[in-house]
Amino acid sequence: MSEFDGIADVEGWRRKLRALLDEAAQAARDDAAAPRFAVAERLLDFTEHSFPNGEEVRALDAIARQAARALLERTIDERLRAIVERNAELSALGKGFETAAAEAAAAASRLRLERVGDALQSLGGSLATLRALAGSLQTGRDDTVIDAVERAIAASRTLRDLLEREG
Predict the structure, then answer these.
(1) Who's near 6: CB < 8 A, 6+ residues apart?
(2) Closest alpha carbon to 125 in 160, 150, 158, 151
């Protein structure tokens, strides 16, 4: 059985539309979308069931359609607003991630430069120590050690040159 059964004249349809519009007004004040959807659907059902299709009933149907559309537009507007708000939050979050990544990259760069500087300083001291060691060794007796020290000096210079280009 339909809520529209038993309505037989224009005055009955007018009263029914008035009752539906009152419910629509109440649903429009409700923050939840479900009541607005429900009343909008009932208003559209009204247009399907109303008869006879004379000028007055068609005018009532037009009012019912406009009220249903208004209820649905409010729901759509709210959902669009919520989507726009989420997009704004996503944008802000993305910018926050970009900023944090840039700060982390800058910190890593500073740390790398610091370590390169420490390594260069240490290599400078090591080279001086290795040269002093090589000078204090006696040729002939310490040739194997001298060769190893000279290879270490060469490797240290190569490493120093690479680090200087990095820094």
Answers:
(1) 12
(2) 160
DSSP-derived secondary structure for 26-38: HHHH-S-HHHHHH
Q: Which two tokens stand for residue 134?
A: 């090589």
DSSP 99-155: HHHHHHHHHHHHHHHHHHHHHHHHHHHHHHHHHHHHHHSPTTTSHHHHHHHHHHHHH
* Average pLDDT of every residue of the chain: 85
Integer Cα distance of 129 and 82 in angstroms? 69
Give Cβ neighbours of residue 56 (< 8 Å, ≥ 6 apart). Answer: 10, 14
What element of type H or E holds 157? helix 143-166
| 10, 56 contact by CB (below 8 A) | yes
The DSSP letter of residue 8 is: -
Contacts 24+ apart (CB under 8 A), 111-115: 112/166, 113/167
Sign of CA dihedral 43, 48, 54, 55: positive
Q: What is the pLDDT of residues 58-111, one digit of tens each?
A: 999 999 999 999 888 888 888 788 788 888 888 888 888 888 888 888 888 778
